[in-house]
Amino acid sequence: MRFRLTPRETSFYDMFAASADNIVTGSKLLMELLGAEPSARAEIAERMRAAEHAGDDATHAIFHQLNSSFITPFDREDIYALASSLDDIMDFMEEAVDLVVLYQIEDLPKGVEQQIEVLARAAELTAEAMPNLRTMTNLTEYWIEVNRLENQADQIHRKLLAHLFNGKYDAIEVLKLKQIVDVLEEAADAFEHVANTVETIAVKES
Hints:
The chain is mainly α and about 210 residues long. The chain contains 6 helices and no strands. The protein starts with 10 loop residues before the first helix and ends with a helix. Residues about 1-5 have low confidence and may be disordered.
């Protein structure tokens, strides 16, 4: 770890941890959506929207702290990238839930539950990893596993697309469902972006 003669602003660690914890909340709402009746989904979407707003607030707090701090725990561009990628995850998860409600989807295609399970696991790993930024320890397994999960998410996504285009669904339904599974795939990509940023920070700080 690099030696510094000046004190560092440490509240960033707590804010990153809070942002990641909020993502876990979002992933649990996604899981809840899977087992919910269509009539109950609007209420879940409202709670997801509230979680997304909380995520926005957390991101803005990090940016405000970044702009007002003379000394930061690691490079400013990495703080910005990490906060932005965490925010992207919540945005994509909220968008997926909102689309399910707006499109009045009755039954989600088989395989979406696998997508959401991958996201839930990535959320847990991310929440566990954020406090470790303070010491830069126990992070290697985190980014390796999240990258593995993203590869798994890619495979699930491709199988879902093949299923959607097998002729079972009409064209309009295909368009609706494809947009939902694409957004969930973007959430998986965003988890990988977070992990890659953490790896970059750890390498710089080593």
